[in-house]
Amino acid sequence: MAEPILRVEGLNKSFGGVVATHNLDFEVEPGEIHAVIGPNGAGKTTFVAQLSGMLKPDSGRIFFDGNDVTELSAPARSHAGLARSFQITSVFRNFTALQNVALSIQAHSGHSFRMWKPAATDAELNDPAQEILEQVGLGARSGILAANLAHGEQRQLEIAMALATRPRMLLLDEPTAGMGPEDTQRITQFLAGLKGTYSMLLIEHDMDTVFALADRITVLVYGRAIATGTPEAIRANDEVRAAYLGEEEAEIA
Fold first, then answer.
1. How many CA atoms lie within 13 A of 143 on its CB side?
2. pTM of the model
């Protein structure tokens, strides 16, 4: 069996008396989409922040592609092949879609943002940036300022910026947050098309998206993994149903 591309051992993170991650073990297989779900306050975003290097765990180890990356910075993890999208869109609103992606390519190659102005017309940046925008369905919107893109398009642009770093794994934090049904369906179909090409950790509230995409699902409650399994196994798990009393239980059913 292939070595997991991501492996977490005994991860712990607390904020004062609040335990956000509790002795968490977790794995993502190469090419797998592994979704992480749980009620609000379950520790999902804190978990992703630790994986990306934005937060340092109190204890435990994080291994990516067979290497211990626990002490690596967020930029170092990005260069190693871990790319994160955020729950709140984080694009450069006063740059065009093309410029946003070209900036990501430039930053990943190690060049300073101060060199952006002369690089703005560089075909070595713009040509691959345009290709990535075509891939995510924004090819015709490349010249539009990010601020003028629809919300769903901004989320697509953010994923394009993540792809521009040539990742081996995507950390997707609520990629459909704030989207209507049509945009959600479009992003779900797009991510499905990436399946097998990239390993993905998916944090998502929309259960239709989760069950459409995930190979495996881990359920977090108060920072603790209460279940991991196939979508079918998670649907049938009584402890998961108990953790989703009310509206979210109905969504899983």
1. 2
2. 0.87
Distance, CA of 103 to CA of 93 (rounded, Å): 13
Average pLDDT for residues 176-202, to the nearest whole number? 89
Would you call 94 helix, strand, or coil by DSSP? coil
State the pLDDT confidence band at 187, using cuts at 50, 70 and 90: confident
- Cα–Cα distance for residue pair 104/159, rounded to 1 Å: 11
CB 26 within 8 A of CB 225: yes
Alpha-carbon dihedral 110, 112, 118, 119, rounded to 10 degrees:
30
Residue 250 has pLDDT above 50, yes or no: no
Sorted by where each starts, the structural domains of the chain and their CATH numbers stand as 1-81+167-253 (3.40.50.300), 93-166 (no CATH)
Query: How far is residue 137 from each of residues 35, 141, 150, 200, measured CA to CA in Å?
Result: 23, 9, 13, 19
pLDDT tens for 43-55 read 999 999 999 999 9
